[in-house]
Amino acid sequence: MTELTGAVVVGGNLNGLSIARSLGRRGVPVWVLSTPNIRLASFSRYTRRTVLWPDCGDETQVEFLLDLADHNNLDRWVLFPTSDESAALLSKYHTQLSTRYRVSTPDWNALKWAYDKRLTYRLAEQQQVDYPATFYPRSESDLDAVALPAILKPATHAVVNRFTAAKAWAVENREELICRYVEARSLMPADLILLQERIRGGGESQFSYAALCRDGKPIASLTARRTRQFPIDFGYSSSFVETMDVPEIVAPSLRLLDAMKYTGIVEIEYKYDARDDRFKLLDINPRLWTWAPLGARAGVDFPLLLWRLMLDMPVPELTAPPGVRWVRVSTDVPAAIHEMLRGRLNLFSYLRSMRSPLEFALVTADDPVPGLLDLPLYVFKHLHNRFAAARKGAPSAGRYSVKD
């Protein structure tokens, strides 16, 4: 079965690379569906074939996937998403895609609670899980009662623009809030814009519960701290993560997953609020996250375990130990420099954080090419995006990589 049952990965980003390496090292054939501007996974020795992913509507993409299986004998291969949008696509069309594939996302009844932050916080309210005070302004007049500083954030990332790409906009004063809100309103409908209290602290205040679940029950899991991120205040992705014992976030995570009856892999993000000594829910990510290889280093290889679950193979119950680390050097070095300039990190502490066991995000001896191409591909991606935006007469959307 291992020789015949492969994986189709929707996305060539770092998440796609992690899936290709995890499965390819075990002899599982992996195909990557990639857009021209995000092709990191295509350069892995473990990617058997790269296919151009169409940039079009949902129904056309679903037909593309079904045709791909029909014409290439990919029947019952496991289908993996690598972003919120590809996860939503597979989830919404779960029944249709399941006629040819094993779809690794839960159906829409479960995944919608993670995809739409309005539903995420409604679920948190129902399950008595702490989350930052959140408001849903419909116009500028609704901004008056909001305490500052705060952040504006999109409820979904269905449309790629500078607001959704930035993940969140910080606002310090009333003038900045109004200016940013008007800008956000120009990019998406008012009902998709959230205004949330700002919890002070950088990556050292952010924690995650990651798990593989079946029907809302965890099989394998870990807890970790996002010690450094880049940019350091509102990091789009982690640059240094380490496993830790954080029991405070386990119980609320279990309540959320059980309520969703979630099956698949998931990462639930929290931020510690020193004002009231509570961990508050930020996001639920219903697909692989950038630092997932940390799990493999700690004995919990999430892509492989999910592949086994999809094939109805035995999956052992696992919990990762504390003290295992992951780093993406290309973003962690500038993050560390910024932290040093602010007096929050010294060189000795930084070097000490790099002790073993340590997993590098891109550099591996058995698959060196993606690590060598990380920076050139990053530059190409952003030049491509700026050129595409200029041709459409629109502002550049900035970062297009998947967030954590």
Structure description:
The protein has 404 residues and is α/β, with parallel strands linked by helices. It has 3 domains: 7-105, Rossmann fold (3-Layer(aba) Sandwich); 133-197, 2-Layer Sandwich (Dna Ligase, domain 1); 203-360, ATP-grasp fold, B domain (D-amino Acid Aminotransferase, Chain A, domain 1). It is 35% helix and 22% strand. The protein has 14 helices and 17 strands. The strands form 3 sheets. Strands 10, 11, 12, 13, 14, 15, 16 and 17 form an 8-stranded mixed sheet that branches. α1 links the parallel β1 (7-10) and β2 (30-34). α1 packs across α11. Residues 392-402 have low confidence and may be disordered.
What tags apply to this protein structure?
alpha/beta; disordered C terminus; Rossmann fold; 404 residues; Dna Ligase, domain 1
Short summary:
By secondary structure, the chain is of the alpha/beta class. Helix content is 35%, strand content 22%.
Unreliable segments of 5+ consecutive residues: 392-402
The fold-level CATH name of the largest domain is D-amino Acid Aminotransferase, Chain A, domain 1
* Whole-number tally of structural domains: 3
Number of helices: 14
How far is the N terminus from the C terminus? 32 Å
Note the main sheet. 8 strands, mixed
CATH class of the largest domain: Alpha Beta
Write the layout of secondary structure elements.
Blueprint: E1 7-10, H1 14-24, E2 30-34, E3 49-52, H2 58-72, E4 78-81, H3 84-92, H4 94-97, E5 102-103, H5 108-115, H6 117-126, E6 134-135, E7 150-154, H7 162-166, E8 169-171, H8 174-185, E9 193-197, E10 206-214, E11 217-230, E12 237-243, H9 250-260, E13 264-273, E14 278-285, H10 293-297, H11 302-310, E15 318-319, E16 325-327, H12 329-341, H13 347-353, E17 358-360, H14 369-391
Helix pairs in contact: 1-11, 3-5, 5-6
